[in-house]
Amino acid sequence: MPDLRWPTYANRNLQLDSAVFDGVPAGEGSLFVRDTDGRTYLDAVNGIGCLPLGHGHPRWIAAMEAQMRRLVAAAGTFFTEPQQRFAAEVAARCGLPEARSFIGNTGTEVTEAAVKLALRATGRDLILVFDRAFHGRTLGAIAMTANAAYRAPYVSTIGENVQRFAHMNVVRVPYGDLDAVRRAMSAHERRVAMVAVEPIQGEAGVYPAPREFLLGLRELCTQHGALLGADEIQSGSGRTGRFLAWSTLVGDDPVLQPDIVWLAKALGGGFPIAACVARGDLAKHMVKGSHGSTFGGNPLACAAAVATLQIMDDDRLLQRAAAQLPALREIAANDPEPRVKEIRGHGAMVGIEIAGESRPAAPLADAMQQRGVLVTVCADHTVRVLLPYRAGADELRQVWTTLRAALA
Ligand SMILES: Cc1ncc(COP(=O)(O)O)c(C=O)c1O
Fold it and tell me: Among 27, 76, 94, 261, which one has the highest count of C-beta atoms within 10 angstroms of its own C-beta?
């Protein structure tokens, strides 16, 4: 059938129909999907990391059904119970003093919120970002995203009688290079409002930051009066075994935390919601009219997210997520594949890098799809496995044996 959308995505030639619920244990979400021809796939894409509970978790559905009958939309000018509960649950998990949230719908929207907050709270005009970074695709966030192909066609110019649209001052340095950060801070003394970092770079190919790098960023930001912002859109919401990848990599010491954290993807269990969470003394700079979103913080999305967080706690899903990468490494060690160069990540955020020839990841993902496993491609050499948190050795073995068969 013709694709009536804008042709902005690489086409995998697959029409998904529904999740598969046969054989799913009671009270769990499904790990499998079916296409319109009736073929079944293990889903390690999950909407690119949006389904921590799997597909159609019954408690998540029940929470949304109940909320749908109660109240679905409410303008930001009104309080609702789900919105306040959501903000409280997120604040409790982020460990920022007096945390306050802007609640949005998508990742890029909360990247933008973080930037606005940083510019207003510091009165400075520059954001420091990293090579290979991905922060979203709206016009502010693409200024921070590294891939030039995403940015080049949209550069804002000044024309006669034309106002320039929002344009961000961005300095970019290599990921992991503290000296480069130090030099940039000194070269732009008192101008850097925020250093924005993905604790694990996802789209770049699943690269966790070394702990010393994150600690060094904390120190440099404090020293130079810049804010430290963690983009946890992909790495957060429990995927690495702690609520924030920052906690997995750095720990919980209050003085070593970022100032602003932003989350999306897995946060709503598959229903769109995003949050930019900041220390209270920073959030107060976002005064009336400084930001907003019609659907942001709607009661339905908040109820979905509150249920997701509760299910994660009740079913100890973060512990199960944490076990995924070690389990895959063990499977790989017992059944080695010479063309796999490296297995990287933390918990349920896994990148498998393939050695050799140019751009092996896309054809490999296609060949795995033909054998019943869906994975995403990030960068040219890496396939990414973003399973629901309850997935375990059986599913990881299926990923591994399918990958080996596809490579053969
Ligand atoms: C680290 C990071 N930031 C921002 C985004 C953008 O999120 P969204 O696609 O929901 O706008 C993504 C999406 O992959 C991401 O991984």
Answer: 261
